[in-house]
Amino acid sequence: MENNVYLPKLAKIIEIKEEVGGPRAIKTFRTVFTNGTQFEYRSGQCAMLSIFGKGESMISISSSPLLRDYLQFSVLKMGRVTSALHELEVGDLIGIRGPYGNGFPMEDWKQKNIVFIGGGIGLAPIWSVLQTALIKKENYGELSLIYGARTSKDLVFREECEELKKKMPVFLSIDVAEPGWNEFVGFVPQNVLDKKPSSANTIAITCGPPIMIKFVIRALKELHFEDDQIYTTVENKMKCGIGKCGRCNIGPHYVCKDGPVYSWAELKNLPQEY
Amino acid sequence: MAKIEDLKEEARKLLREGKVKYIIGYGVGSNGCMANPVFIKRPEDVDVLIWDPTCVHNLTRFLVDEKRRKAKEKQPDTRPVGIIVKGCDSRAIVVLLQEKFIDRKDVYILGVSCENAGVMDEKKLAKKLGAKRPRKIELGNKGQFIISTAEGKIEVPAAEILAERCLECKANFPVIFDVMSGDKTKRILEKPYGSIEQIEKLSPEERWNFWKAELDKCIRCYACRSVCPMCYCDECVVDSINMAVTPDTTAEEKADKTKWIQRSAEFSENFVYHMVRAIHLGGRCIDCGECERACPLDIPLRFLNKKLEREARELFGYEVGFDDSQPALISCFKDSDPEDFIR
Amino acid sequence: MEKILLKKTLPQWVKQLASYTVFCPKKDKEERWNYTEIDHEGIDLNFLNTTVPPKKILFPQKEIFLEFIKTDESNQETLEIREVLPEKKATVIFGVRPCDARAAWLLDKVFSGEFTDPYYWIRRNQTVLVGLACHVPPSENCFCPSVEGSPFSEEGLDILITDLGDKYFVKSLTKKGEQLIRAAKQLFQDPQPEDLKKVKTIRAESVKKINRQLKDARAVSSKLKGLFESPLWDEESMSCIRCGICTYLCPSCHCFDISDEVESASPLKGNRVRTWDTCQFPDFTMHSSGHNPRPEKASRLRQRLFHKFQYFVETHGQFQCVGCGRCISLCPVGIDIIRVLERVNEHGK
Q: Which CATH number fits domain A106-233: 3.30.365.10, 3.40.50.80, 3.90.180.10, 3.10.20.600?
């Protein structure tokens, strides 16, 4: 049937990069649809990745929609589906359906500065926005990145971040000091307060563990960011991805459909049950 | 005759003196007739407690919730919980004590004797009353039920609307208690396993067809499991999601977790679920009948559990839920245990 | 169109529907009804209400979405996905109570919108719902007028039948319904003025007989928002045993799970299926990390009531409860949705 929303399209994995090894492994996958198509999407949207026989998992598309060559997903190994995904090799087939969710309202941010604040795997959902903003540099003000992880080995897009330093301010951090680490040591919210991004004409986007988001928002409020200047993506357990199975709701919203992108102004009015 | 006033007095005292956290008992439900579980924290609320043939629930089930609640608290209130139990329910407490799921000091048992009667079966009552709606059900002093309706009172011999399990009841008064209301009336059972005779008369093929028809109806609401005090596992054989996930659980452990039964409510899956559950309850089920009562599709689950109860008795001479000083059946062995399967 | 059908002629109408699969309520040994497929014989509309609502036919407990097969042909591994749509089967369900049909109308809203659920709609479009208006409330816990329904509401139905004693007043509400009547039009007569009068009387009487009421449900709905953090959820959920009865047997509940059922691991073969799920199970919202937004029974009871009386109202403008009373009658511990909402009403004062 044409456009059966539950039917994934087959996609081939063309590249796999191990970002983080060990028990909290993260791999980045680049995929292309086997029928040669590509779908239109916005930064911040996600797709349901199918490992047939295991299930599906909703993952943010971390590549910019302006790049048509592939869809990129960075996946943290967490459970049944993600473990199976981590076992795959280049050339293997998976299913993809999407794009789902509301995406970041980048059209509202013309000529604004954007500060990206990420923690751990949380950099992946906002990476798409970052790449798009870099490609369309003329549409936006100053871009900066504040990103941290538990240890230096848990940082994703490590090489890309080093490259980025040539184009924009990039402030990395790790939780505990390590030999050879000469950037900030501490939690991401502390780094935010340390670097003091200006709130004037600026949008802050943050994503990471829930506890980090909570304290980053607190830090941003201290730095006089208004509620509608702060954006985040929320995650919840999902199955259908289209707002019908009833699982991912926060109040009357379904995170898969009405989210996952929310401004703090919107999110604080929803029941804090996520 | 068992009087709720005795238990109310005791309950009031316990709450006033702060000896228990709260009391689990029976109160009148929203339709004004059937009992429902109630949780009483204040001595002045004790008057809502009732005792009549509509008190069908096995309140021991809520001791499991209490344990889960305490496990989540950093500094739990270690006072016991007061609980009103019938004979059957008290046997459930014995099983929980044998399995060291709870301590004796965790529970203050207010027992009540069913004496010569028991509790009613709502479906049998509905059949008896037809279109009439019951307003109140009381036990008469001749062991009959007195049912008040809008059209007046009806007297019914207990045997006609007693729950099936009451007809085979082995403990019509609590076997363990701190206080008890009512007499320790000994009842002689004519047919302690009468209910399973009708199944045992069937040939294996007939039995298969019987269970196929019944289990095809199952929608896997898990009410049977949820209402059972002995189904206290944090993670059940049917749960494909590891509910006992901790921050240390690895992705591999979650990924490798075996999915024993699919979520589809098809006969093959339903059959495995119910059979596995029955076997997990072998030597543990005390026949409170709640699983069958809770089932919205009227699947006769008691047959399975009753059969295994008899097996436990015949093979191992074990009566479930009478002696909390005895080890649980499955957790021990005796040299005299049957060995005829060893060749 | 409005027609009259003599009661004794009903079986003939059913016989004329040879091209349809026919369901009607049948009593089981415990004297409870459930929709059963009948072989065009033995139709009987003498019932109160079924335990399992007709949603089970439109939205079955299990349905296959797709098949996945890995084949190894000439050393090339291929993965094939085959869509599995519901069987094309024109269906009629006789004896649908107006509340259950109204629930189907609510489910229609859920399964359409920005994304259309093809599986639901194939079944919904090929099923004719023939309703039976209520003379007396089928359950002592009915409260349909309180949630803007009625014993003779028409939403979701294709035909509404009112029992006039020895005959039925048959009103078609959709093209599908009309088609069903035309399939045996010779069996129907035109209604007389006294028939129409009788219908009016029966309807007026039936509403008066409903025992239970939730006063001012819309006000309850607006009060709910302020009571999200109230301790009343903890108190009311103390006896909840976290089974799935209230939601599985609710005609308007629709939560589901999607999982892969593997028949053979190597070569890989299996189905992706949809099965019923419920927000009342503790692991419903549990993330793979173990984090659970709704770990407590209180939060799950709150979710059920908020979803039905606040979130759905915000999104679709309607209550997601049709007042059938099943959750109250079937809850093993007597948790009563009307009583909990009455407390909300009192609290909000």
A: 3.40.50.80
What confidence tens digit (pLDDT) does each residue in A182-215 have?
A: 999 999 999 999 999 999 999 999 999 888 999 9
ipTM: 0.94
pLDDT of residue B241: 54
Domain boundaries defined on chain A = 9-100, 106-233
- Chain A residue with the nearest C-alpha to that of B253: A79
The string of pLDDT tens digits covering residues A79-125 is 999 999 999 999 999 999 999 999 999 999 999 999 999 999 999 99
Is C223 a residue whose pLDDT tops 60? yes
Beta-bridge mates of residue C129:
C93
Q: Does A5 contact C288 at a Cβ distance shorter than 8 Å?
A: no
Model confidence over B43-94: pLDDT tens digits?
Answer: 999 999 999 999 999 999 999 999 999 998 999 999 999 999 999 999 999 9
Helix (H, G, I), strand (E, B) or coil at C159: strand
Are residues A79 and B250, on separate chains, in Cβ contact within 8 Å? no
Mean pLDDT throughout C222-230?
A: 92
Cβ contacts of residue A122 below 8 Å, gap of 6+?
Answer: A206, A207, A208, A209, A212, A213
Name the residue among C79, C272, C285 with its Cβ closest to that of A237. C285
Residue B191 confidence (pLDDT)? 81
Query: Is residue C84 very low, low, confident or very high in pLDDT (cuts 50, 70, 90)?
Result: very high
**DSSP letters along C129-148, please?**
EEEE--SS-SSTT--GGGGT
* Count of structural domains within chain C: 1
Question: Which CATH number fits the domain A9-100, given the four candidates 2.40.30.10, 2.130.10.10, 1.10.287.130, 3.30.465.10?
Answer: 2.40.30.10
Q: Which chains neighbour A (Cβ–Cβ under 8 Å, 3 or more pairs)? A: B, C
For C264, the domain range is 2-347
| Chains touching C by CB (3 or more pairs below 8 Å) | A, B
Q: Among B222, B240, B298, select the one facing C243 at the smallest CB separation.
A: B222
Spatial contact of C144 and C99, defined as CB atoms under 8 Å apart? yes
Of the candidates A48, A33, A37, the one whose C-alpha atom is nearest the C-alpha of residue A100 is A48
**Are the CB atoms for C277 and A245 separated by under 8 Å?**
yes
Strands A202-207 and A113-119: parallel
Distance from C-alpha of B171 to C-alpha of C78, rounded to nearest angstrom:
64
Q: Do domains A9-100 and A106-233 have the same CATH topology?
A: no
Q: State the smallest CA–CA distance between residue B176 and chain C in angstroms.
A: 23
- For β-strands A261-263 and C167-172, DSSP reports them as unpaired
Residue B134 pairs in a beta bridge with B149
- By Cβ distance, the residue of A23, A25, A79 closest to B255 is A79
The reply to whether B250 touches chain A by the CB within 8 Å rule is: yes
Q: 262-301 in C: which are within 8 Å (CB) of A?
A: 262, 265, 268, 270, 272, 277, 279, 284-289, 291, 293-294, 299
- The pTM of this model reads 0.95
Q: Which residue has the tokens 């009915």?
A: C142
Cβ of C284 within 8 Å of Cβ of A247? The answer is yes
pLDDT of residue A2: 75
Q: What length does chain C have?
A: 349
Query: CB-based contacts of C197: which residues, under 8 Å, 6+ apart?
Result: none
Q: Which of residues 70-99 of A touch B (CB under 8 A)?
A: 77-80, 82-84
CB-CB under 8 Å, A249 with C307: yes
d(CA A203, CA A197): 10
At C80, is the secondary structure helix, strand, or coil? strand
Q: What is the pLDDT of residues C3-40, one digit of tens each?
A: 999 999 999 999 999 999 999 999 987 788 999 999 88
Q: Which residue has the tokens 């073969």?
A: C269
